[in-house]
Amino acid sequence: MLYYLLKYLDSMFDFPGSALYQFITFRSGMAFILSLLVSTLFGKKIINYLRRQQIGETVRELGLEGQNEKAGTPTMGGIIIIMATLIPVLLLARLENIYVLVLILTTIWMGVIGFLDDYIKVFKKDKEGLKGKFKVVGQIGLGVIVGAIFYFHPNITVRDTPSILLETGVTSKFDIKSTTTTIPFFKDNEFNYGQLISWMGDGYENYIWLIFIPIVIFIVTAVSNGANLTDGIDGLAAGTSAITVVALGIFAFVSGNFVFANYLNIMYIPNSGEMTVFIAAFVGALVGFLWYNAFPAQVFMGDTGSLTIGGVIAVLAIAVRKEMLIPVLCGIFLAENLSVVVQVAYFKYTKRKYGEGRRILLMSPLHHHYQKKGYHESKIVTRFWIVGIFLAIFCVVSLKLR
């Protein structure tokens, strides 16, 4: 809303400094600072409120060192992340931008699902929380909406080449609707999902949405569940997510900036640069949340936070056409997910074959395996962050590594 106020002041009164609103970099920097202030200054008040309402974590006995000390720690701290993200976005972003609107929808939608899950755990004293099938329905619902918007909305386009007439310096616009995405690490690295059903013959273009929307559903569901599983020890989910989102912010900025996109020879996505404002606010919220969530945690994000984080990361990756980088960029989430899948599958297999279930890991998800091996959770979190930084840098380097 401040964006529109500054725009009005600039157009009507040529108010000194008001023209800064035009620069995404300025608004992104302000969004980061404001979200950091909101999450740190108001975070303590929210934590105290949660504590007064006795909204504390119920800890299951897993035999982990220091586990019992966490009982009663306020949960639902994801509210801090959501609030610290949305306030700067509503103040500083262009709210008519379709990418920003989709990200706001994602934040609220997944936040509500996570809140319901936490509410049932805390107030209904049901450790299982919201039934898994209802979570999946919510994730699928978001995937359908996001997929339909990205496929059908007229303002979600890519710019075809050639983009510049070098002789005159005039930009020629060829914005087209496309389901093209990026294949990382290859020179000619564009892939259109329509190729998956091109065998249907003439008119197959009318049915690309039948393959595109299910892919979006799968990505949203997988990444949000991965973030949920990663939220197991103090600071792990918030820290690794902040690293991932910074990398996506770089992708959003260069993909939405014609000059950088042309220089890097990557897909130019009109209007996508505005997502940088949202991303800056989201990173500020995550870093501010870490002030209270780092070991020893004063608050847990709960599913309110973890499902929101996963949903936002998934939508961002799809929006900047980098979803094929998710297995690398979200490598921590993937490892946590796979550790659970492999552990359960191997346990069931050995139980059928030998009459007793056996385990590959001491405990899943993966971070609990290292806890069982005697590593302090601060060391585990720091090392996971280091791996996350390496993966994020590697993904950013892929812009030129082809």
From TrEMBL:
InterPro entries named among the record's database cross-references: Glycosyl_transferase_4, PNAcMuramoyl-5peptid_Trfase, PNAcMuramoyl-5peptid_Trfase_CS
Keyword terms, alphabetized: Cell cycle, Cell division, Cell membrane, Cell shape, Cell wall biogenesis/degradation, Magnesium, Membrane, Metal-binding, Peptidoglycan synthesis, Transferase, Transmembrane, Transmembrane helix
GO cellular component terms given for this protein: plasma membrane
Main location: membrane
Topology versus the membrane: Multi-pass membrane protein
Places the protein is found: Cell membrane; Membrane
E.C. numbers: 2.7.8.13
Cofactor(s) recorded in Swiss-Prot or TrEMBL: Mg(2+)
Residues that bind Mg(2+): 228, 303
Reactions mediated catalytically: UDP-N-acetyl-alpha-D-muramoyl-L-alanyl-gamma-D-glutamyl-meso-2,6-diaminopimeloyl-D-alanyl-D-alanine + di-trans,octa-cis-undecaprenyl phosphate = di-trans,octa-cis-undecaprenyl diphospho-N-acetyl-alpha-D-muramoyl-L-alanyl-D-glutamyl-meso-2,6-diaminopimeloyl-D-alanyl-D-alanine + UMP
Cross-referenced Pfam families: Glycos_transf_4, MraY_sig1
One Gene Ontology MF term: metal ion binding
PROSITE patterns: MRAY_1, MRAY_2
GO terms (BP aspect): cell division; cell wall organization; peptidoglycan biosynthetic process; regulation of cell shape
Pathway: Cell wall biogenesis; peptidoglycan biosynthesis
Residue intervals passing through the bilayer: 20-42, 75-92, 98-116, 136-153, 207-224, 236-255, 275-292, 299-320, 326-349, 380-399
Protein function: Catalyzes the initial step of the lipid cycle reactions in the biosynthesis of the cell wall peptidoglycan: transfers peptidoglycan precursor phospho-MurNAc-pentapeptide from UDP-MurNAc-pentapeptide onto the lipid carrier undecaprenyl phosphate, yielding undecaprenyl-pyrophosphoryl-MurNAc-pentapeptide, known as lipid I.
Family named by the database record: Belongs to the glycosyltransferase 4 family. MraY subfamily.
NCBIfam families assigned to the protein according to its UniProt record, in alphabetical order: mraY
The protein's name: Phospho-N-acetylmuramoyl-pentapeptide-transferase
Native species: Paenimyroides baculatum
Gene (name only): mraY
